[in-house]
Write a structure and sequence with these properties.
Number of helices: 14
Structural class: alpha/beta
Oligomer: single chain
Shape: globular
Largest sheet: 5 strands, parallel
Bound molecules: flavin-adenine dinucleotide
Strand content: 15-25%
Distance between the termini: 28 Å
Strand order of the largest sheet: 3-2-1-7-18
Helix content: 25-40%
């Protein structure tokens, strides 16, 4: 029986685990979170369940059947609250996957190390927010955090909320905020109507295959119309105002490069704002496993979802930002092949078709909502870019100019941007773009990126000291209790 370890229990990981088991593998699926489902099916904590949770989610039946298969099969071990804190390549060309189990940052977490026969990485993405003057005020959230609080805690981030950024995720967040009791006073999509129409309406026959996703978007549109939520394209929130917390924002018309059109600025009162400018794949584990990363900064995979690293597969948002449908299809294909199946097998034909449709949808979304080149013009010199280390835009530009280097490493070492607690997860891509914009170039002089993080999650030294010397081969070895 092939051993398959799946890291991440979102749509991609769950589909992978179920497909691998159906093809006869022994499977272990692990996730840092308390519950299965990832970001898309994030639900209330088990201590506070909802009676009719299906009303709060799309595709809840799909989740239910994946969850039941994963939880009821004795040959699938489920390890929740378990983080992969590092992956190492060993001298004998194997991978050692280091795990810590227990409450994140808790004391006395149980450490374990596995050397799985096949590894499927399904760790998803984190959301990106561009900085603007005032964005460090209390009351400013990323769209992902606002969504997580609304879905996972039933908490609205404010009473009068402004939502800004780019992409269909803004609509999903607006709907969740409404359900959690907030009044959304405006949604500002930075892409202009012409770009949206050009990319969303091109090759309309392809959209027929994504009817389910279109239905989801239509549902959000109805929600907007019913709630009379103003939705403006080609607009951005370019400053946040307040003394001790958010009191208002400045909204402006943006040109196609996201430059502010002078004279269009206006002030809107609100007590919270959330920014969502797309997603950044969590590349640290694939990089540690030796996977090739594409120029567009995703994990390179072949038609079987195999990466360039031996016996390592990648699925979901690690390979493209395409939503749950793409993640599910990719997961099913990877799980099946990792367990010894082939793309020619009848069992996964549906998943292959579904992946093609979802990839077309993802491509459309990517083009329609691409971040404009000139967003950094919004920043004042004193606008904080790296929040952990308090590094402002002026310092980044000055140091980039003074060192006359397009290398990311000198900028990080001189300013400490990206070296704080979040290790560049929040600011990394923004710091990179400020460096490139300062020098008017498209590539760094060094091969460094802010995605390389050999230690993927914080681990206490005491837990590190207890890490086993040799990894266990079988993923089915049930974890010892605490
Ligand atoms: C904060 C946030 C909220 C989102 N909400 C929505 C939404 O409401 N609707 C929507 O359509 N899309 C949403 N998205 C987009 C969403 O990520 C995708 O549509 C979909 O969930 C992708 O599935 P996935 O399986 O690739 O990744 P995910 O669903 O993100 O699953 C990845 C899983 O990997 C786990 N993981 C990551 N790193 C580790 C590690 N080192 N060790 C162990 N486990 C790890 C995570 O805990 C997570 O459960 C959201 C994205 C984010 C970042």
């Amino acid at each position: 029986m092939t051993d398959v370890l799946v890291v991440g229990a979102g749509p991609a990981g769950l589909a992978a685990a179920v497909a691998a088991r159906r093809r006869g593998a022994a499977v272990r699926i692990i996730d840092a979170a308390e519950g299965l489902g990832g970001q898309y099916w994030r639900h209330l904590p088990s201590s506070r369940p909802s009676e009719r949770e299906e009303l709060l989610h799309h595709g809840w039946d799909t989740f239910g059947s994946l969850r039941d298969e994963v939880c009821q099969d004795p040959d699938i071990v489920v390890s929740m609250q378990t983080e992969v804190w590092a992956i190492e390549q060993t001298a004998d060309n194997r991978l050692r996957v280091n795990l810590a189990r227990g409450e994140a940052d808790g004391t006395g977490r149980l450490t374990e190390a596995l050397a799985p026969e096949q590894l499927i990485l399904a760790t998803g993405a984190h959301d990106r927010a561009l900085p603007v003057p005032g964005w460090t005020l209390p009351g400013v959230f990323t769209a992902g955090a606002a969504q997580a609080m609304a879905k996972g805690e039933r908490i609205a981030i404010g009473e009068r909320v402004v939502v800004a950024g780019s992409g269909p995720f803004l609509l999903s967040v607006t709907a969740s905020l409404g359900q959690a009791g907030a009044r959304v006073v405006g949604v500002y999509e930075a892409s202009r109507s012409r770009a949206l129409a050009r990319h969303w309406l091109a090759r309309p026959w392809e959209l027929a295959g994504a009817a389910h996703k279109i239905g989801e978007l239509a549902e959000y549109a109805v929600h907007h119309i019913r709630g009379r939520v103003p939705y403006r394209t080609g607009h951005g929130v370019v400053a946040v105002h307040g003394t001790d917390r958010v009191e208002a924002v400045t909204v402006a018309v943006l040109d196609e490069h996201w430059r502010v059109v002078t004279g269009t600025e206006r002030r809107i009162d609100c007590d919270a704002v959330c920014f969502g400018h797309g997603f950044v794949p969590r590349l640290e584990l694939p990089i540690a496993a030796g996977c090739h990363i594409t120029e567009r900064r995703f994990v390179h995979v072949d038609a079987c979802q195999r990466t360039s690293a031996d016996r390592v597969f990648a699925v979901g948002e690690l390979t493209a930002i395409g939503g749950a449908d793409l993640a599910l299809a990719q997961g099913e294909i990877a799980g099946w092949v990792a367990a010894g199946g082939s793309l020619d097998d009848r069992d996964i034909r549906r998943a292959i078709r579904s992946r093609t449709r979802a990839e077309q949808f993802a491509d459309r979304m990517d083009r329609a909502h691409a971040i404009g080149d000139c967003w950094s013009d919004w920043l004042g010199d004193d606008t904080i870019v790296c929040r952990c280390e308090d590094v402002d835009a002026g310092t980044l530009k000055r140091v980039a100019a003074a060192t006359n280097s397009t290398g990311l490493r000198p900028l990080k070492l001189n300013t400490r941007a990206g070296l704080g607690l979040c290790q560049g997860r929040v600011c990394g891509r923004n710091v990179e773009q400020i460096l490139l914009a300062t020098h008017g170039c498209e590539e760094f002089a060094d091969a460094t990126t802010t995605d390389r993080r050999p230690i993927a999650t914080p681990i206490r030294i005491a837990d590190l000291a207890r890490a086993p010397e040799h990894p266990t081969d079988s993923v089915l070895n049930r974890p010892r209790s605490q």
